[in-house]
Amino acid sequence: MESLRFPNSNPFKVLGGCSSSWLKTSTIVSLEFSFRQMPVESEPSKVRILPESLINKIAAGEVVERPASVVKELVENSLDAGADQILVTLKNGGKDLISVLDNGSGMNETDALRALERHATSKISAEEDLFRIHTLGFRGEALAAISSVSRLELTTCSNESKGAVQFRLNGGVLEHQGKTGFPRGTKISVEQLFFNTPARLKFMKSTATELQHTQQLLQRLALAAPAIQFRLTHNQQMLLNLSQAPDLEGRIQQLFGEEVRDGLMPVQHQANQLSFEGWISLPSKTKTSRRLQYLFVNGRHVKCPALNHGIYDGYKGLLAKGKHPAYFLKVEVAPEDVDVNVHPAKTEIRFRNSQLIHTILADQLSRQIHETTEKRFFGREVGGGSFPQRSDQVEFNLPDSLPLEESFPKPLRKKNPSLDVRQRDLTGFAEIPIAPSGASSRKKIASPKIVESNPNEAPIPPELVKSETGKTESNQDLDFPEELNLFPNLAEKPEQFKIIGMLHQSQILMEHEDGLAVGDVHTIHKVLIEVLLSKTVEENSVRLFENEVPLLLELKAQDALILELHQKLLRQCGFQIDSFGGTTFSISSLPFPLAPEKCAGVFKDFVSRVSAFGKRAHESEIRKDLIQCIAGHAALDRQSSLNYRAMSLLIAQMEQLDLPPLNSSGERLWFLIRKDELIKRLKA
After folding, report:
1. What is residue 12's three-state secondary structure?
2. Are strands 507-512 and 515-520 parallel, antiparallel or unpaired?
3. Which domain holds residue 307?
4. Most C-beta atoms within 10 A of its C-beta, which of 463, 475, 499, 555?
5. pLDDT tens-digit profile of 620-666?
């Protein structure tokens, strides 16, 4: 580098370009001159050179915002050093103590001492390196900045045979240097952060807030590096203990549990311009907040509008208003195509071609989202792919024929598909699995067993059903529709009633000690559902059907307003309903046992009731109306033939819940024709 010297000067350097004829190139020259050559002013100088200590504190203001910032810098250094075990210890949210211990490569005495200086790093050496950064840290100013506003102790060892070195600094001033015993690795303790910067100390938040920031930071780092063991201790209490995970999926499960993991689908793409892999929300499992959004580029957690917008574009047409996808996405691009030297916190990045990156990400995610949702049926895959099947899914046996039908003579087995009470035929509604929430192991259930009989004949009870050999066969092993098993803890056989058969495909004939009883299938089932929903809504334990692809419901403007006003109540009753824009709503869950095709009818009736009695003062009455609407549409149709076991189950639940013959609306569940009345009529 060429330089010009002015005589009799105390020089300092000024960098700039020169266009003189004797320097026709763009060579940067160093001009060294002195203020002695400047005219002497009578007024005192306003511009001054800052002392080194103040420079470090200014740098600390950019790098060290709060205790979490210190943890970030130190843990990233540990990761760069190849550590696979990192222990973070805090006192009072990090205000009194921050300690980071790792088993990385460590440093020798010379490197450790040099690392405490400003702009000292082993990660880059030339300007060109800024555009192909492979490490998390690279500026070489963190330790100097942190030590300038705290009491810092550094203990490190790169070779146990040569021992470890220890340094103690107070406000950036070295107070102690010596040898000590320590295993291979590094430990940095930061005490009394901002003790010498009262102005910054006043901006510290509460202990709980500062601790929360550190926890969130470690979660991000743990997701970026699942193979690393992380521990966080606060005031001698273990808050985080993450063992090494095999992959990102394992880390997600460690941090957020099975519930979050089960709502995600895997995505991946390999290409020269952009590669990514990770897990994103199923369209039905989107969230009301952006809390579960984690984006990593080349192993670094970042905030990037181009990538974030690309992810949302991948869900185009599948996100309801106010809903956000959860995503845990690791993106890899060539280091020379991304600039990480944009912000002191190193969380903002820029791409050389952000539009291309956005387009690739959006197109690939959109394709994979649609492929996955198309393959999923009843909450599991029915085609190829690698999405893991949940262990708690209900398995549906779909026999070629109904078992009870095989026991009947040929004339009674006529085909009539319209009698299938669970038939799904409403356009725009997807089929939902029938599965109790929170169940870990469930029995296999068959499809609803519906006996289609001659209208003039009742189903034959089991004691009258005979095989070809003439022996009586029992039908007790036959299954029943899951929507009838509302109270699994109750007995499945009645004690007071003896089932005779069906009457006109809508009533159950029963023998009672006092005479002949007739029960209405629809009304009994309806009242049972009302009892179930009233209890589970009160206990906040409503059993749900969940849609893999949300149902869309279009309403009139006035009706949409009513639903908006009662969204809280609808959620309490099992509806996950969200605005999809305008007067369209997205429904991702329904209360059991409501079928999807009956959903529109429920909302129509509910809106009608609220419109008619909208000035009611008590919310409990509106909730009761909603439960009645759900039960009315969820109950078995009035033309629903049932097998013997299904009839027994329905009556047994009615009997054990001690339901009265008349419900609160004046509808009759059952009535009794006494013996003397029967005898009288027979004689007449």
Report:
1. strand
2. antiparallel
3. 248-381
4. 499
5. 888 888 898 998 898 888 777 788 888 888 888 888 888 888 877 77
Distance (Å, rounded) from C-alpha 177 to C-alpha 152?
12
In whole angstroms, give the CA distance from residue 354 to residue 154. Answer: 41
Whole-Å CA distances, 479 to 445, 447, 471, 623: 7, 9, 22, 33
Query: What is the number of residues in the chain?
Result: 684
Total-model pTM: 0.53
Pick the last residue of a domain from 347, 381, 415.
Answer: 381
Instruction: Write phi, then psi, for 323 (nearest 5 degrees).
Output: -105, 150
Here the contacts of 262-267 (C-beta below 8 Å, separation 24 or greater) are 262/390, 263/326, 264/326, 264/328, 265/368, 265/369, 265/372, 265/387, 266/386, 266/387, 267/329, 267/364, 267/365, 267/368, 267/369
Percentages helix, strand, coil for the chain (3-state, rounded to 5) are 35, 25, 45
Distance from C-alpha of 132 to C-alpha of 339, rounded to nearest angstrom: 8
CB 573 within 8 A of CB 630: yes
Residue bearing tokens 């974030």: 308
Pairing of strands 3-5, 376-377: unpaired
Are 282 and 228 in a shared domain?
A: no
Mark whether 145 and 168 lie in a shared domain: yes
Identify the CATH number of the domain in which residue 364 sits.
3.30.230.10
* Whether 273 and 399 share a structural domain: no
**Where residue 676 falls among pLDDT bands split at 50, 70, 90?**
confident
SS3 annotation, 255-267: HHHHHHHHCEEEE
Would you say residue 43 lies in a domain?
A: no
Which of 209, 224, 242 is the C-terminal boundary of a domain? Answer: 242
Total structural domains within the chain:
4
Distance separating alpha carbons of residues 146 and 116, to the nearest angstrom: 10
Q: Tokens at residue 576, please?
A: 């996950």
Residues 407 and 337 grouped into a single domain: no
Looking at the structure, tell me whether residues 633 and 681 fall in a common domain: yes
Residue 519 and residue 509: Cα distance in Å, rounded?
Answer: 7
For residue 137, the model assigns a pLDDT of 58
Q: Which residues have a Cβ under 8 Å from the Cβ of 154 and sit 6 or more positions away?
A: 112, 115, 116, 143, 166, 167, 168, 169, 186, 187, 188
Q: How many CA atoms lie within 13 A of 58 on its CB side?
A: 6
Residues 6+ apart with CB under 8 A from 497: 510, 511, 512, 517, 651, 655
Q: Say whether both 80 and 200 belong to one domain.
A: yes
What's the CATH code of the domain at 108?
Answer: 3.30.565.10
